[in-house]
Design a protein that fits this description.
Elements: E1 21-29, E2 33-36, H1 37-48, H2 56-64, E3 69-72, H3 85-111, E4 120-124, H4 134-142, E5 149-153, H5 160-174, E6 179-187, H6 199-207, E7 210-219, E8 226-234, E9 242-247, E10 250-255, H7 259-276, E11 287-290, H8 295-305, H9 313-322, H10 328-339, E12 348-355, E13 359-366
Parallel strand pairs: 4-5, 4-6, 11-12
Antiparallel strand pairs: 1-7, 1-8, 2-3, 6-7, 8-13, 9-10, 12-13
Helix pairs in contact: 1-2, 1-6, 2-6, 3-4, 7-8
Length: 367
Amino acid sequence: MRVPALDEDAPAQSFASDRTTALVAVHTALPAHRYAQNDLTELIGDLCLPPGQDRALLRRLHRSAGVRTRHLALPIERYPGLTDFGQANAAWMKAGLELGEEALAGALDSAGITPSDVDLLVCTSITGIAAPSLDARLAVRMGMRPDVKRIPVFGLGCVAGAAGLGRLNDYLRGHPDDTAVLLSVELCSLTLQQRDGSLANLVAGALFGDGAAAVVARGGRAAGPEVVDTRGRLYPDTEHLLGWKIGASGFRVVVDAGIPDIVRTHLGPDLRAFLAAHGLGPDDIGIWICHPGGPRVLAAVADTLELPEGALDSAWRSLASVGNMSSASVLRLLEDIGRTGCPKPGTWGVLLAMGPGFCAEFVLLRW
């Protein structure tokens, strides 16, 4: 078969350039165990610090984290009983299945579809591991079709909510008649290391909360914001900044103080270039959905993009009310926009997050 010659003067276009992805429903599920930050400080100190150790740093971190309340997978009094990784992971499995099912059921109900309508299920979590994975167990538990496509994701961490939306968009451009679902289940409290007074562990104990969120996406025009484009950025020689050190006690967090500097150096130019490809700049964006990685990260994002005061208020509010829920955070923010009133048609939005790698992911939205 002869392949037709390409017209080198013709504009480069994707075969699916006219296809769109709509985010038609989002639902967040939070554990019932909700605590004020002030009530958690000393209890987390009991877990992480040896008796008699000075707690001035712990208390300062809790006061400055920007968190007022958080939800935990278990009642706080049960955490001392999780003495090894197996026990913590078993708790992640049990609570994760319950919260994951609640998030999925809520999103599917909001979209007006049933589990058997799902063609692709992407499930992300960096706070536990299982084989069969959460998505396999939930697909059977909820009555999805035996031929449902599944993609379990581990390792993306906080960026996985944004990256997951990007991969739904990639899939639906090739399968425009399908329905794809992203599920994030993050039970960060179950990774807290007992008797570990390191700065990274204390920061995690001050910032992170638990929750799950699910997004239903469809090809073609539908109610909800349209995914216009996505882009990821992986920064070389930054692997040491964020992630896990995995050992006998489970996931020991790595959080480097250099993260805000990387954000200031790279995020602004990269995001501006992404927007410029669509003839846009930061001033054209009406809605910013930014992962609430912590006060220093949010300040760095606002600085590097020269955002007006209040542009990241939704992220600050989310951080205060539920803490940093890793990959589920940006999905919860997306749900909040629908709750507070749909933006005017034509409004541009950017959803962005950062994660291990060190990396960033951008999603350009339009309502």
